Amino acid sequence: MGVRLLELAMEVGGTLHGDGTVLIEDAATIEHAESDHITFASSADHHAAVEGCRAAAVVVPPGFPALSIPRIEVDDPTAAFARIVCRFRPPREWEIAGRPADSLPATSRCGDGTEVDPTAVVGRDVTIGRRCRIYAGVVIGDGTVIGDDVTLFPRVVLYEKTVVGDRVVIHAGAVIGAYGFGYRTVDGRHERLDQLGHVEIESDVEIGAGTTIDRGTFDATVVGQGTKIDNLVMVGHNCRIGKHNLICSQAGVAGSCTTGDYVVLAGQAGLADHIKLGDMARVAAKSGIMQDVPAGQTVAGLPAMPEREFWRLWANIVKVPELRKQLRNIERRLEGLDASAERDAA
Amino acid sequence: MGVRLLELAMEVGGTLHGDGTVLIEDAATIEHAESDHITFASSADHHAAVEGCRAAAVVVPPGFPALSIPRIEVDDPTAAFARIVCRFRPPREWEIAGRPADSLPATSRCGDGTEVDPTAVVGRDVTIGRRCRIYAGVVIGDGTVIGDDVTLFPRVVLYEKTVVGDRVVIHAGAVIGAYGFGYRTVDGRHERLDQLGHVEIESDVEIGAGTTIDRGTFDATVVGQGTKIDNLVMVGHNCRIGKHNLICSQAGVAGSCTTGDYVVLAGQAGLADHIKLGDMARVAAKSGIMQDVPAGQTVAGLPAMPEREFWRLWANIVKVPELRKQLRNIERRLEGLDASAERDAA
Amino acid sequence: MGVRLLELAMEVGGTLHGDGTVLIEDAATIEHAESDHITFASSADHHAAVEGCRAAAVVVPPGFPALSIPRIEVDDPTAAFARIVCRFRPPREWEIAGRPADSLPATSRCGDGTEVDPTAVVGRDVTIGRRCRIYAGVVIGDGTVIGDDVTLFPRVVLYEKTVVGDRVVIHAGAVIGAYGFGYRTVDGRHERLDQLGHVEIESDVEIGAGTTIDRGTFDATVVGQGTKIDNLVMVGHNCRIGKHNLICSQAGVAGSCTTGDYVVLAGQAGLADHIKLGDMARVAAKSGIMQDVPAGQTVAGLPAMPEREFWRLWANIVKVPELRKQLRNIERRLEGLDASAERDAA
Asked: Which residues of chain C fall short of a pLDDT of 50?
């Protein structure tokens, strides 16, 4: 089943340097490549790592320094390597067991080419676009509207009246449209406020496994076009997430926050409620945001501050033990001076 | 489809100030209201925001300052606005496809008016009360007991022998009763300790999407009456959560903690195991609790301390860079003094 | 239904001290035991607690100090108590509704003694070993391979080509094999990188409810033998988790991290991407790891540092307010000295 290196070079349209007859059995990253594998390096930074690895050959960008193993030069090594990986281990389309179109409720409908697993549950008055893939165990609430080319992986739940754009991908177990966490306390009991809104997911959004996005109280909770959300993220009710944001795993956005475009929230970051982040604002991992962040600013810490300030402060904080020693020295010297001053006075 | 403002005022029993013939097309919050919408303000604090918004009319509390747009005065503007929202966008009851009562296992039973989706899986010896709503894909383990008026949203899992009170709401994807994370290490392998307990959810509890509550080791893990838990929260084995707590998103409560009544955990807070929080204790967002907290105290920080101390400490911490500069100044002055002392002595 | 204490002592092979005729009605932990219950103490540390509790009898280790209530002495009180709990409240095996073997897709197969709930969805080319338990609503993607004696609790999702070893337990709602969070930004749009790998769960691993483990980009994301993962944990793409790790609830491991053997991550800890933790490294709760951790080291803080340093630093940090006061004193004294020096000079 091996493939000659020359053949791989031709397949990815690359320039071969070295012995093209080498037989390649599989493709793996630098750390995990065996002696009959091909690997790849995205930049010259990985030169030493490639030299130290066990691979038989490597895909590199143009101008990569000389190596002791054969190499294929291409403009985009990552994409070329992906193609080679697919040659050895073809990705398998996860098939959906067909379902007769007339198995949906009478008031719901699907566009051409859409596949709905027979175990998926579709509510009333639901519209699903064309070429969608609705996997096993998905639950779609009444009145939901879904665009074209959408993928809902197994067990996604969309509560009633959710709106989903085109080319959206939602991973297994995500829950869109649960009630917001809003209560008022009457006679010692927490009464839930009405949660009359819904969730709107714009086109090209991707949402990770287990993530939850709550509906708005009166309006929509919105996730803007092109935004990517990782696993186990919480987006609270009434939030308006901008376009092309990147929200990393386990980040939490409390109720009624708004983010601009191209905002980044690193892992486990948290926003208090009603926070506004400007365009291109960035929040470091684990930070806790208690104040609005202007456009373009990167913040870090708990409570968060501009990242540069945070690190300057931190550099000072770690000196505190030393600082206390200095202080004790100074006090001793002062006592010496006092004593000598007293002697002088005497 | 528009409605005259006067008609809306009458519907909510409010007092109209201004032109009642204005035609209203929809209801939206201040930030999102268009020029043919009605909005609302819960207090006079929002006066400037209302003046700056585009809405055609507004619902306000009595005594709200004068405005350039017509207003409806009512005692509870939020409730009145909710009613108006429902007029324009009626909430839709998410229907459950009927299921014949005899489709349950022979040893299980449901009370009158309970609806169980045909894709929900009900185990043996399960008792479900009256007027419950069991949505698609819910899984109810053997021996579980559920009270009246309970809603289990899609894909909730109750492990065997769970006990659920009346009027409990559990959102999609929550998992109640998985094994506690308890192991002992024998010959280099972690062996799971027996997890023989179960979970008891008292009446009027609400549990958010994706939240997990583990069973007790020998007894019950208990969530007390009226407590509200947000999304993606973890409650560990053997915990006893008190009554009327509010536990915000992504908070984590490690094993064997107890909380009093009216405790609040803000988002992403974490409790070490065996922590006790007194009645009305409050934990700030992202705090890490390593010691018991007495009744009524608010704590913050990592490790947590009384909130006031935390902020006082923080105000001092941000001065540390300045402090180091002061210290350098002092040392220079001391050297000056030393030098002059030497000169004096000479 | 009560049982004489003597009978319980005989059942667990223990030595009875005190009145064996006492009638025991149930078993409960020290805090929750009623006056007709038996309880247990794992060590003499709990002597005072036992004396203060309401239980009628107690299971203790050899050499436990004298007590006012009857006791059963055994070598392993926890195991003996678990047996007694089972006598009063037998754990119930959560049964799986049978499914005819031929209901799987033609290209998939199950070993002897394996039970698959009829609502579980099994893809094509799936191999499931012997004596497995596949609960309701589980979804198993195409090409997945599962070993012997595996338990998949309700609603677990395994994406295509997942590999699962023997004796693995995965709790409800966990998602294994979703796409990694890897994008590159082209013309202002985030394009997902190919996610061609899969997830490999080695033998004896346990995975908690709602936990998510993403597939590798080109290779496998691996969870090593005997590792135990708690609820709502995130393991990113390309991670290689070592053997016998303990990863507590809500911890997050970003992409391409590797951990040695016997590593412990406490609750809500977070690792930046590409971090390496040595064997037996330990990460304190809520810590944020931004640098590799050598074998055997315990780290804490945000950013994390060796735990001892962290606590030393913390002990100094809490003194900062005092330190500022000292500094003000010193400045006053210096002013005094300056003044007297001026007087001297005058």
From this structure: none
Whole-model pTM?
0.95
The confidence score (pLDDT) of residue C39 equals 97
- The values of phi and psi at residue C96, to 5°, are -110, 130
> Could you tell me the pLDDT band of residue B100, with boundaries at 50, 70 and 90?
low
Nearest to C316 among A250, A262, A320 (CB): A320
> B301 to chain C nearest CA, in Å?
11
Rounded to an integer, the average pLDDT of B65-94 is 93
pLDDT of the residue at A346: 66
Active-site residue A198, yes or no?
no
Contacts of A159 in chain B (CB under 8 A): 94, 153, 172
Contacts of A32 in chain C (CB under 8 A): 219
- Segment B106-113 mean pLDDT: 93
The mean pLDDT value for A77-104 works out to 86
| Cα gap A221→A57, rounded to integer Å | 50
What's the ipTM? 0.94
Q: Partners of C146 in the beta sheet?
A: C128, C164
pLDDT tens for A45-83 read 999 999 999 999 999 999 999 999 999 999 999 999 999
Decide if B323 and C323 are in contact by the 8 Å CB cutoff: yes
Q: What is the average pLDDT across B129-134? A: 96
Chain A contact present for C288, CB below 8 A: yes
* A256 lies within 8 A of chain B by CB: no
Q: What is the mean pLDDT of chain C?
A: 94
Residues 6+ away with beta carbon under 8 Å from A50: A30, A39, A41, A58, A60, A67, A69
CB-CB contact of C194 with C238 (8 Å)? no
- Tell me if A323 and B321 make a contact (CB, 8 A cut-off): no
Q: What is the pLDDT of residues C278-299, one digit of tens each?
A: 999 999 999 999 999 999 999 9
Q: What is the mean pLDDT of chain B?
A: 94
- Of the listed B171, B237, B244, B274, which one is catalytic? B237
- Which is nearest to B266 in space by CA: C319, A271, A219, C92? A271
Q: How far is CA B279 from the centre of its chain?
A: 18
Q: Could you identify the residue written with the tokens 């409960």?
A: C28
Of C29, C97, C210, the CB nearest to B219: C29
Place of tokens 């080695």: C202
Residues 147-176 of B with CB under 8 A from A: 153-155, 169, 171-173
Q: How confident is the model at residue A131 (pLDDT cuts 50, 70, 90)?
A: very high
Whether the upstream peptide bond of residue B294 has omega within 30° of 0, thus cis, is no
Measure Cα distances from B329 to A328, A335, B171, B308, B324 in Å: 15, 18, 61, 31, 9
pLDDT digits (tens, 9 = 90+) for A22-39: 999 999 999 999 999 999
Which residue carries 């190596």 as its tokens? A67
Phi-psi bin for C230: left (phi > 0), alpha (psi -120 to 50), beta?
beta
Please give the order of strands across the beta sheet that includes C133-134: C115-116, C133-134, C151-152, C169-170, C206-207, C228-229, C246-247, C264-265, C282-283, C298-301, C304-306
DSSP assignments along C20-73, one per residue: TT-EE-EE--GGG--TTEEEE-SSGGGHHHHHHS--SEEEE-TTPPP-SS-EEE
Q: Please spell the DSSP secondary structure of B297-322, one letter per residue.
A: -EEEETTEEEHHHHHHHHHHHTTHHH
- Asked whether residue A337 carries a pLDDT value surpassing 80, the answer given is no
Contact partners for chain A, using 3 or more CB pairs closer than 8 A, are B, C
For residue A275 the two structure tokens come to: 């926070």
Would you list the DSSP string of C170-209?
Answer: E-TT-EEEEPP--EEEETTEEEEPP---EEEE-TT-EE-T
- CA B93 from chain centre, in angstroms, equals 23
| Buried/exposed code over B107-127 (b: 16+ C-beta within 10 A; e: otherwise) | ebebeeebbbbebbbbbbbbe
What tokens does C71 get?
């006791």
Site of tokens 């198993």: C140
